[in-house]
Amino acid sequence: MTKRDYINLYSKDLSTKKWPSDRNFLITFWGSAIIIFFFLIYYGVSLTSYFQEYKKNKELSAEYKELSLKDKELLALSVKLKELNIKSNALNKTIFNLNKLFQKKIKWSKFLEIFSGYLNDNVWANSMSVDLLGKDNRFLYVQVQGGAISLKDLNDFVSNVEKDNKNVKVSFKVIDKNGVMFYSFGINFTFDTEKLK
Fold it and tell me: Is residue 7 part of a domain?
């Protein structure tokens, strides 16, 4: 074995030098050490607290994104629900109107029979329109356009209508067609459907 030579880089003066026994130096040294120690503890606690807050914020951000998606889904469902409500209301209205029609079955043949009783051989109807009136559709609002050969025939027809009905309004004018004179009239009246029972 060969002998190894070592080089001492540490000075002999330093190796024999003793730490100072100065009291101020020791107080300063240990005070600085304690301050650094507490600073490191404070920094470590602050860093831990920061990472906890960061983690919490990340979790809250993820929750917010999830809730935001759910909110969008709920908004879409809300729009669909409104559309369904509108359709449901329209359907309910249609059903209500159909129920009213079925509840109020009008015997049109009986109505036409009564109306034709108002006419005589010299009075005719060209057109007729009928609308339902009242809460329970008890009344019919009847509009008739027609003609009569004479004023007397027209007056008899109007008298017959006035006997049975309310709100009778008549308008007429004299027509001369190729030398033939007759009266063109329009009559409106309210007919009570209780007469059809």
Answer: no
Rounded-to-integer distance, Cα 192 and Cα 197, Å: 10
Domain that holds residue 173: 106-196
- What pLDDT, in 10s, does the model give residues 85-134? 888 888 887 777 666 655 666 778 888 888 989 998 899 999 998 888 77
- CATH assignment at residue 130: 3.30.70.2830
Give the single-character DSSP code of 150.
Answer: S
Beta bridge partners of 96: none
pTM of the predicted protein model: 0.47
Residue 142: name the closest of 187, 196, 194, 106 by CA. 187
* In a shared domain, residues 88 and 134: no
Instruction: Write the CA distances from 69 to 23, 73, 116, integer angstroms.
Output: 68, 6, 70
Same structural domain, 124 and 94 = no
Q: What b-and-e string marks burial along 7-19, b requiring 16 or more CB atoms within 10 Å of the CB? A: eeeeeeeeeeeee
State the total domains in the chain. 2
Torsion angle of C-alpha atoms 52, 54, 59, 60, degrees rounded to 10 = 110
C-alpha–C-alpha distance, residues 170 and 145, integer Å: 10
Residue 41 and residue 123 in one domain:
no
